[in-house]
Amino acid sequence: MTGIIIKVTPKSDEVTYTDFIEKLHEIDIFANFKISHIPQPVYSFRREFLEHIAEHGLSSLFKFTIAMEDITSPSMPINEIETVVSKFVAKLQGAKRLLIIDPYFFSKSTKTDVGALFSRLLGQMSSDLEEICFITNGRKNDAKNDILAALDQKIKVHNVTTDEFHDRYWVDPDNNKGILMGTSLNGLGNKISLIDYLSAEDVVEIAKLAKTEGSPI
């Protein structure tokens, strides 16, 4: 964005936005500057909103505490969704051990190749990865081979099956970093759900719960 956003607020009820525009015409400011009204900022600055969410997390938009089990929006193009998810996953760069908790992580998608998608996401943070543990419900494995094929053969892989987890997490337990994924990879493109950063305290608790279910990480 190359322009600057300026907020104009009347100091009294005696002037209006129309008066402001008339004053601009009087000084002939339109000869050198293009000024336009933005009726729906959320669409005009969509890319900036996505960049902010990817950098700071969705919770940064809220100044109060709210219980949110699921936040979704109408379907977005899969490439836009992948861009946002990639920026979150990139924050896990440097992880030597990764814990992925997702009941349906090995499920196929009708809209995208989840194996190729996982490979691209892994490319954002896999340079130091030595060990990974998948915790799933074990019932849908039609994309498992494709997903495992995305991993370097030197990476040690663990598989844990349990029904104790409902939500989806990607966690670096050594650096107390993690993200909350609102949908499995096979759900991307259907609707975008909440994706956000986890607090260090949450990461510690999730890793502890994962160990009780058999995770060696």
Q: How many beta strands in the DSSP annotation?
A: 6
Q: How do the helices and strands follow one another from N- to C-terminus?
A: HHHHEHEHEEEEH
Number of domains: 1
CATH architecture: 2-Layer Sandwich
Quote the average pLDDT: 83
Low-confidence stretches: 63-74
The general outline is elongated
Strands across the major sheet, in which order? 3-2-1-4-5-6
| Rg | 23 Å
The biggest sheet, with number of strands, parallel, antiparallel or mixed sense and barrel status, is: 6 strands, mixed
CATH hierarchy class name: Alpha Beta
Explain the overall architecture.
This protein is of the alpha/beta class and 217 residues long. Helix content is 30%, strand content 14%. It contains seven helices and six strands, in the order ααααβαβαββββα. It has a six-stranded mixed β-sheet with strand order 3-2-1-4-5-6, sandwiched between helices.
Keywords:
about 220 residues; alpha/beta; Endonuclease, Chain A; 7 helices
Give a brief rundown of this model.
The protein is of the alpha/beta class and 217 residues long. 30% of the residues lie in helices and 14% in strands. Helix 5 (114-122) links the parallel strand 1 and strand 2.
